[in-house]
Each structure stands twice: as C-alpha cells, then as structure tokens.
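Recall that a protein's primary structure is simply its ordered list of amino acids. Everything else, from secondary elements to tertiary packing, is in principle encoded there. The following example makes that idea concrete.
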Amino acid sequence: MTHETLGFIHRFEPGPDTGHPLLLLHGTGGDESDLLPLGRMLAPDAALLSPRGAVLENGMPRFFRRLAEGVFDEADLRRRSHDLAGFVAAARDHYGLGAPLALGFSNGANIAAALLMLRPEIQAGAVLMRPMVPFADPPAAELAGKPVLILSGAMDPIVPVENASRLAAQLTAAGAQVEHRILPAGHGLSQAEVSLAAGWLERVARPGAT
C-alpha cells in the first residue's frame, strides 16, 4: 500500500527484522514501488521503507534537481537531503524501526551518499549502486566505521569509474568502511552484483555487526 504521510509518498513493507530495515531509494523515473522486489530479494527478513522522490524532471520522479546530466543543483540537493532525513526519522518513530541501511540506485544512490555526508546519523550504512560524487566540495563528516558498498559498472556511460572512485576515497577519508567493486556492466544492474550485495547486506545486518 502506498502512503501519503510523513512528508513523502512512500511504501512500507514490514519484516521480522525491524532492527535493520532497508531504505530503498530509486533512480530517475522510478517510484516507491520500483526497488521493492530487489529489496526483498537482497534482504528477505528486512522491513522495507521506500519513498518516492519529490522532484519531477520531465514527469520523472527524482530526489533532487540537476542542472544538466551529471551536474547537480547542490543547494537543492542539500535541502532535499535534510527533507529525506526528516522523513526517515519520522518513519522510524511511526513504524518502530532501527537505523536503516540505504539501498540506492543512480539518483537514489547519489542522495544516499549526500545523506551520509550531511546527516551521518540517519543511515547505519549504505549500498550505493552507480553513485557519483554528490558535492564539488564535500562537507566534513564523521562516519566512524560506517559500512558502505559501492557498485560501479566498468562500461557505465553515465558514471565514470574515476568519479565513483573519488566518492569512495571521500567516504573512506571520513572514516567509513568502504568496499568499492567495479563490475563488467553498464549503468544497469547485473545478476552478479545482486548476489554480491545480498552477501554484503547479510554480513552487515548480522546481530552485533557494525
């Protein structure tokens, strides 16, 4: 069921493990239903929280505005990141959830990366699929061992591997425990990385894991 409360149109699917919910953040043109099957495949027992991006670009939902492909409206990105942080905090109270692990694809991965830098307390960790560096001048953040998996496509025509490698370096410098995997793929997801992400999430979400 789609809800229009807590500041974002969203869907919530309960699961037996509410301590490690997945925050699903879709790519451009997706919506609150887009990543639910992937989330359930990757973490069968997790609660799933999936908001719809509040920005429209040519009728397609996004989480923040951009000036051109690969050129972000950073002021809007900052504002939308704080809006998303407020939604996550409200949803945790409303649904009785622990701090989520974000699972973001493309535009959703970019706002998840921005959220790590601006509001590190919001996420317990993140799987960033096809992310880019969100800020030209990254804000200082204290990520203190927070687990982050970055998945890049070696043949991605939208996100150069070098850009994703810079993001990995920025998050590592802020203290995150980053694993950056470069796969023989384009911008779309491959079955190999679905399996890789599932294994990573299982390790991270184990009781007592960081």
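Residues 74-95 form the longest helix (22 residues). The radius of gyration is 15 Å.
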